[in-house]
Amino acid sequence: MNPNIKSEGIIQIGIITEKLIESKEFFQKWLGWRVKFESEWFLLLSHPEKEDREIAFMLPNQTAVRKSYFQKPYTGQGIWQIMLPSKFI
Asked: Residues with Cβ < 8 Å from 6, sequence gap 6 or more?
């Protein structure tokens, strides 16, 4: 995610994966992202300089999540993006 994009709202990208711990470790160690929220099945990280820039990771097949498109793990599908209008600074 490009931290130089000025957002008029929250931008979030999410990946449905079995590898929550590995994803967390990678983003913290190599990119400096911070944990904003963490549960047994969901992880939300924020950019170290632009806290409104987020990436989420979620375990597949969660009964608390009702939408079918949030159930499948990433295999070419299983990624979501929430993005309101934005512009480059």
From this structure: 86, 87, 88, 89
pLDDT band at 7 (very low <50, low <70, confident <90, very high): low
Antiparallel, parallel or unpaired: β 79-83 and 5-7:
unpaired
Q: Which two tokens stand for residue 44?
A: 């939300």
CB 65 within 8 A of CB 58: yes
pLDDT greater than 60 at residue 86: no
Amino acid at 30: W
**Mean pLDDT value across residues 41-55:** 91
| Alpha-carbon span 5 to 30, nearest angstrom | 21
Region of residue 65 (left: phi > 0; alpha: psi -120 to 50; beta: else): beta
